[in-house]
Fold each of these.
Amino acid sequence: MTSRTFQNKLKRGVMSGAALTALMAGSAIAEPVQFSVPPGSLSKALTDFSRQSDREILVSADLVAGKQSTGLEGAFEPEDALSALISNAGLSYRVTPSNVFLIDASAIQQTSPDQEVVNESSVQSEPVVQTAAAATEERREQTIVVVGSHIQGARTTEALPVTLIGQEQLAAIGADSGDDLFRSIPQMGDVTFNSTYLPQSSNAARGDVGSVNLRNLGIGNTLVLLNGRRVVLHPTSRANENLVPVLTYNTNAIPTAGVSRIEVLRDGAAAIYGADAVAGVVNTVLREVNNGGDLTVQYGGAEGTDLRQLDVNGTFGTDFADGRGNVSLFLGYTDRSELSTTDQSWTATADRRSFFTGTDFEGVGTLDRTSTISGWGNFATVGTGTVRQNGVALTTSAGAFSVIPSANGSCATSLGDGVCLRASNRATTGTDRNTRYDTNAVGTSLMPEVERINLFSTFRYDMPSGMQTFGELGYYFAETNAWQQSSTMLSSARITVPSTNYWNPFGATLLPDGSVNPNRLPGLNISPNGADVTLTSYRFDDFGLSNVNVENHQFRFLTGVRGEVGDFDWESALLYSRASVRDEQDGVSSTRLQEAMSWSTPDAYNPFNGANPADPQGLDTTLSNAAALDYARIRTERYSRTSLAQLDFKLSRPDLFTLPGGDVGMATGVELRRDLQLDDRDKHVDGTITFTDTETGITVPSDLVGTSDTPDTKGSRTVGSAYIEFAVPLVSPEMNIPLMQSLEMQAAGRYENYSDFGDIAKPKVALSWTVVDSLRFRGSWAQSFRAPNLEQINATVVSRSNTRTDWVRCEADVRALRIANFSDCTGYGFATTGRRAGNPDLQAETADTWTVGAVLQPRIMPDHFGSLTLTADLWNVEQEGLIGIYGEGNALILDYLLRTQGSSNPDVVRAAPTADEIAAFAGTGLDPVGRVLYVNDAYRNLQPQNLRGVDFSASLALHETPVGRFNFDVNVAHLIEYERAASPDIQALLDARAAGEINSGTIIPEGGNLLRQDGSPRWKWNASMTWQPTEAITIGAYTQYTGYFWDTSILNSAGENWRVDDQQTVNLYAQYAFDEGFAQNTRVRLGVRNVGDQLPPMDSSATGYNGALYQPYGRYWYASIRKSF
């Protein structure tokens, strides 16, 4: 059975099963829970109850210590069962709006704030035991989140800045993918891996992918956990702002159907979790489902577009062995249609000039983001000098000529059918601007079509010996289809059209069969044998748009066991996870293309027929013969794989010994991890099949038109680590110290040994100082690190082509008075190849982080009415040894500077200047330059960066009002400082620009203040509100704000950047839950995201918006129905 056949059967099976479940659910009636709780310890009985009922409990350790329970057998409602279990202990309970049981020694009938207690060490719901002194206060208002600690129930986690996204916030956000969900976190920086990023080649990650970037420290600086353990990295990389390949965790692989909550630790945590936890940790906790489940179907779409999405999500679970075991299953299915650039007027053109009319940027030439490379080609005859027809020059002295629409004028000779030949390259910023290629107008994909399946299950079984086994099994699959622009020439891999080409206007007088060549122009001053012609700028548009198909697979298996030995809790687990990506795309073989261009029959490929004379910027209508197209067309494939294998052992005890302030907790553990990355490039790219020009003899490593060569890479590493953590109560309430109700400290350290770059050890210290019941201060200091990824270490020479400006040509034009200033320099952006190499001597990026903050819980209202919690945390990160390269753009600026001084940059390798280039530099005082062949570079540890900011949050719960219950949450991220020191080489360029040695219009990545530079806004915040007027009705609202930033890719005449405006959007939903009749246990919801139908703020990119911060559509409606059973 083929992989695709298996996937199709799996999809049909999932949907058929979902449909069958829905039919069965239609007649299902809610049943009591089957309990099997043996007599014995009350603490153990409450643990069993929590697991069997799938309900969370918060209780003080002192309340249950030494008490017994008579046990419970049979089917009961959870409330009745809990009452029976605690009846003989003199205890009572109350229920929060989120269904958490709060147990107290006195009967309290009112509800409490909607807060949850979570435990990273045990992902199933369990009672969390705290010290008695703060139990009442904590159950009132403070969520205890143990992400950030390995000590179960440690109070030192109060020292840690943690954001919790619970069920109410999840509903208000209305996210339909992991990417949407993680974007909603204000502390999340720019999401550079996203499905709207669709590069022309497979050299960068694309498809169904989303990234994690807390604090904007960069991809790779945030650790992602699932149920407290690592997840595998997404296999394909992309270049970051430092132009080095980075890898991310794919947020779309998170099984959102089973999410109970998301915990965001906004603090360095390498001492707890190891590598990558520099900015913090994001832990997704899945829920356990007992004897039932639900099925949800949702359908939605964006107004004014063809974007539509169907989501089917289900959760199912069952207990077995009298409640000692449980299996839970979560499924998610998504089918989303494509969003095309032509769906909306604001994305239907890459020429952005009209959108800036009336601003200070009106008339800036660089706002035309259409491509200068089109089916209207630039060519050069080889070795002919000026070609003339009856004395009229058809080429320049270097042989350059172009094919243009006859209507554009200045034709040297006609080629027929509205196409002519001009004796120069196209004037793409003037007369021939209409021959540029509009990548948006031809209907490329803005967002790909997506089909996604997420299947995940959890397992737990309590053995008679007292140990518990647990496990996870997950599978993620996604397939995307998109349409990309057609292939173009790389300046470093030009192709020669042989003189034998049937359509060559400078071909031989006679064809091989002796007949007269009908396409050779008459009256030429060249040999009867004809002339070869080099394609210098050409788009192979008659091959049509390029189809891109990307398949993602991810598999996760975990098995573990936990138990007690003496007074210690222990846990061990084995984890294996693998991810793979298969990226397929239409392409053109350079070798086969040149063969097709050598044919002397009408079947030959014809690059001289232009594109579409009636609509020069439209799709090519003058197609070459199908035989040539089919012969040269290929389907390329890139296969990438990563895997993660981990074995860990944890040991913890909450009362290792006792100090005057209380019991000292301890946790220690060891981990052994094996990481692997494999990148198998297509044979046309990895050097297996190269291209040798039959006419020039020049060989280039890549045979794929428009794609740089990239060798296959493979790397692996073994990581051994050990850690220890202490929770130390320094002061307790019983010590009666004024203004110090309690003081707790967390001290931790971790050592890791990497097989490829050596050892590293990092510490952490955190403090929590409770002044009074309503006021707590907290702070931490930690050292963290990010290990260089396997691609950065193991890559051989990698060629990457990016559009870079050859600034010395701009200088020549200014000196020759052809342009007024550098803002008019739009014709010298070329596809420039950088030859980059991995570096086995790279060291880890290191960071020092600290946070200080406060938690205020004022008693401004009675407990039964509600509660208010306010937090503020100031944070700072100082990071060193960032991995980067010098970059082709900087190398060209340095070359420009050195050439004004009479030398040049040896890392910039150029061809010899042509006669036309010599003429262009005449009289400028600059030596003429040829085209750039490539730029040499390598990965290295470079400059440091510093970031500082402050986070605010507010949570207000109103439980008893005349109109129902309310919950309000606000989360604010304010970035105060984002600075990256310029390396000495970059600083030299900046100094030269400041001194006037190079033009002020040069664009140099300055380092310095990067705040609000092409992203990284100063302010991001969100707020949510949930209102329950009755038990059946829920209304939710969510708003998100993103501050402004500067688009540094354009300058006006005053040298100023464009300001990309801020934006605030609002989401709303309303739902109704039926509690009787046929619709019993059914919930319907109607929601709308972006109520105000606001488009993303405009920038100067070809698509007109920043995809790392915004989605490319306005108002989005959705409706869903859920059936529980």
Amino acid sequence: MKKSGASAILLELGNLFEPLKKLQRPDDFTYFINKIGYDIPYINSIDYNGLGNAVSSLQDIIKEIIDALQGQNENQTMDKLLLRILPECNNLIQVLNREIPKIVSAVNALSANTASLEMILKKTMDFMVCEYLLRHRYKMYAVLHVLGIIESNPIHMVHWGRLHLIVTNQKSLFNQAYSWETGFDGNEFINRLLQVLYAYGLAGGIYEVEGRPELKMPLLQRGIYPDNYQEVNINFSPIPIEGEAVKKAGLLIYPSAYNKFDLAFELGEAWELQVEGNLEIGNGIAGLELKPNNPLRLIYLQGLDSITDAADFSFSVALNKKTAETIYILGSEGESNFYITGFSAKLLVEKKGDTSDFSIASELKKSGIAINLTKGDSFIKKVIPCPEFNIELDLGFVYSARKGFSIKGGALAIELPLRKSLGPFEINTVTIALEPEETAFPVKFSSNIKAALGPVQLVVVDIGFTTALSFPDENGLLPGDANKLGPFGLSFGFKFPGGIGLSIDAAAIAGGGYLEIKDGNYAGILYVDVKDKIAVTAIGILTTKLPDGSETFSLKVLGMAEFPPIQLSMGFILTGIGLAIGIGCTMNAEELRRAVYTNSLNSLLFPPDPIKNAQKIISDLKSFFPPADDHYVFGAMVKLGWGGAVPLVAAEVGIFLELCGKPLSLLRVALAGIAHCELPNPDNTVICLRLQVLGVLDLENSMVSIDASLEASKLLSWPLSGDIALRAGWGDNPRFALSAGGFYPGYRAPQGFPALRRISVTIGEDNPRIGLFLYLAATENSVQFGSQLLFHYQKDIALIGLIELDGNLSFDALFEFNPFAFETQMRSWVSLKCDGDSLFEVFLDLRLSGPNNYRARGRAKFEVLSFDVEVDFDKTFGEKMPELPQQTLFPLQILAGELDKPGNWSTVTPLWAQNRFNFRKDNDANQYVDPLGGLVFRQMSVPLLFELEKMGEAAVPEDENYLDLQESGGNIASSGVEDFFAPGQFECLSDREKISRPAFEKMKSGLQFSCGKIEIPVANARVIHYGKAVTYETKRQERSAIHNDYRPVFSAGNKEDAVLPAALANWQRLAGRNVHNQAKIKSSTARLSKIKVREQKFAVVLPEAENGKFICTQTPEGKATDLTYARAGQVRSRMQTDAVILSSTKTV
């Protein structure tokens, strides 16, 4: 007779205590103590008979209970057996309480290892569990052993603290079990893996290969040797480390085969094995190399040359159940059981680019848990009115070396139907959930409770209690809050409700509220409607803990009031106002934009039916305004109408500001709105429009965006839909894109631009059906537009069949401005089918591009029944515009000219000095530079470090097609400056690249200079020496064909001199020095150009009254010449007031 679920559990429980039953003699007990890790001699102070007899009596009662449950012992009733088992359990507990302290004392007296009550209990339980699994559940033992949960050498040990790692952190589990990252114990791993093969009846063995052990696992063995024998193996080979016997460098997994084999074959009638891969390995052997902290590699072992690490590959082995026969994993048919109908398992190894992964996936199809309580007592039948029910599950379990363990299609929770009323309270379901943690396995029992008290209805969500089974650590200690249950710990606790809902429906007032409590975070909604005149909605969200467990403080409060219309001017009415305040939160612009396209913006603007939709509203607001320290959001909302007492147009509008920092600065501004109208009136609607709009001014990212979506709109009964978006940026992010309905086919939308639906109207719901789709777009360098018309009609005609008529007509156009070009395409087709077979079809695809003569290409097809004609064409027509003599521009000359422009030079103020100092404005036209900041040169004419193929439509000399700008000499440091350039102006792009490549890309445009050293020589000194003379260079660099890098090329040659702008001359004036600038541009085949900046000297002189000449004054050092500007100022201050300072720069 089949065992029931209860009898099976009791039987297994009896088997678990089997090792204790054998403790009848001193030798048995000594053997047992030695097996759990304590080396002791003979002990005669223990009541062995009492302990063994107590366990035996308990097992006898358990066996009688099992027989009664199975109907084999009709003379025993369950009540009598339960009354007998209680004293036997009490007797066992008394024996254990009396004998265990003796055991601890004896072990401590006779063994070198110190024992404690907790450690002996833990080791005893470990021994019992391991022996039980070895004798009765060997498959489970082998799996837990290879996972490192169970150890059996030298003693039985269960690492309870590692159980949660199976789900939470598999890498840490493998490290603890096999020292994967510090010295992989590969031999132990393959020995344990071999135990798994034996446990499941699979062939395999460990063989010596080139002096090292290797596990060979056959996937296929069939035929008769040597005639038609076939064998396919998977081999696991630890990678040795030279000079190390135990530690390994990693693991090599590779296939081997004897004779040729099919890649898909059957394993009996019920199972099929499939092997797939996307890498051709010919006749060689390829293996997968796994090493700690290294990507997965495919290596060739023999028969082929080496393979590069960049090669992509995938290899999978899948096992599928073909039949629909039900397999019972636990229990049996007609009883409570866990069953599966379909099953598949797959091992996958793949590498794509820099990402590699090893995964094992299994899927239980049409599986479930059947609960049968028909044999329960009267109490069970009263509490659960439906004693037979089935919980269907479609579960998938996936382990990935990169992503970890996950469950698809379900969770570790079940929901049991209850439907029980207790007075005013109603309990519909009970949920049981398992949530594994590091040191415990807590189980949550919760339910939703409803209560009705007159006009008030109360709902308490997810309330119940939790119980946690905790495991001892390596020292046998349990968590402090756990009650001891043998070697384990058991704790109970109240589970606070996840949410509380309240609704009121009275004559004068209606409304309700909802409060959500989860992980220290609180959210609530309150809605009150007074006599259908005034409705108030309040929403509050308080976040004190982030998902990672860290503490924070974020408060969001929204309040909205709706009331009878208040007349405004020009036919507008005000029907609602609102206010939003957020402390410690930011504005997630991306989530707000997504809300436009998912019809979720109304969660922010006067949400309808807030109590019914409370959970969605709270979830949306959390995503709109996530926590962020020192950020604040403030908003105001209004609800407007226009067109009379019953508004023709209604709108909800809100403006939201985000501020941050100290002092506060404006970061973002968002304008959100929902507009809807029904014309000419709601009772006789011809057109119904509902538009959601969001505009965001993002000052932090220098961008403005507008998103709009048409939803739930109709023209007569024809649906209207479509999306509109705008993205415009400035500063370091200059871009522009505006689209209503999307872009030209094949055009790559700018980064971050949403996927838009075409502006569309559909006439007819199904048959016939006509759809019209439109789009219009503009970017920095293009205009695009297009339309499409679709038609469908079908009719089922007797004696003929189902007739289907379909048609399409579309037109798309793309115009680019610089350089000017256009491309258009037109596509049309009409088809007639009968029962899916084509009777007639006409197809035309035409593309036209220009303007420098015109090119038409495409395809035309005509088909009637089985006769068809297809023509491809590519024609060029029109007069080709004469090519004008191509202009040649000289980038080096242009760059030198840019260096002479004062507007290209600017100062940089250090961050610490911003808002602290201001330059004094003199009447002269000089530009002054902060000596502690720096100097920036940038130009927008020639991109640097970029291979120039052209400039506009002009050619570029080959010896000037790659330029750079660098500084050299002195204590001046420099770094590159980047700006946006249009690549199409400097590179020859194909038509496809013009469509898909970004209009602007960042390239080097100049340099930023900063001082290398500032010295204050002595006390009371008035002079600050700031750097030395600086030399700047413009270089042309050539690309090396061998190393694909860049190298400067130098040569001699001179051209005329040029002078740098005055801004550079004033760079050091504030520090007491002036700089005289003289530039020389050197050019030759290699085009090396240097720009030198030299230090200027000064002299103090007196004017000679008679002839207007100057006389140099005397100083203690001699004549007052060749002085710094600061020193010249000191000399002049000690002389006559008519002394002047003049430059005395010498020619170098």
